[in-house]
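Sample pair:
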Amino acid sequence: MEVWVVIPVRRLKNAKSRLSKVLDERLRREFSVKMFLDVLDSVVSCGSVKRVLVVTPDTDVLKFSRSFGVETLFEEFEEGVNKAVFKALNHCVREEFLPIVVLPSDVPLLQPEDLDRVVRMGCREPSVVISPSLRFDGTNLLFLNPPNILKTFYYEQNSFFSHLAECFRLGVKVSVYVSRRIMLDVDCYEDLAEFLRLGEGKNSYRFLREKGLKLLG
């Protein structure tokens, strides 16, 4: 089975503000780009992925994504992840009706085999696969087969359980893929410390080490 991967990316300005005590604005912006690069590396290396779409209001992210050879969708206004995903899903359905995996840009530990496993879990239509965030409040991966099977709830405070509840309401088969590599999105000091413990070999890990962030690990 082949799939779309959709990656919503917010503006880089003021990115990762909760890391401001250890990284200044410039370093947070650069770190965000390195994490995005790690995600793209894994996505384009995955045999199950046929097409990749990055949706963003940030022109620098657009240029970087295009140089990487993936498709892009420009948001004129930043209206939140849910609307970005909705716009991207509609675009994908019009272009080529394939199952869709929605991923954030800040899960740098992601590996191609994670995506392959998720696709195998959800290969029988209709099906949804969800990976929660580390604190089981957010949604760090959402696989939709078919792509229009589910309304998304990224704007909810607890989107993981909102997505589960919607699957139960619709009677749709739903599986939960639990992997620390996907569950660790780097948002706060504790996440950063965990990433420095596990992320050796990643672009974003090398970046942090080059900038002297060793005490956290």
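Helices lie at 25-44, 59-67, 81-95, 112-121, 159-170, 180-183, 189-198, 203-210.
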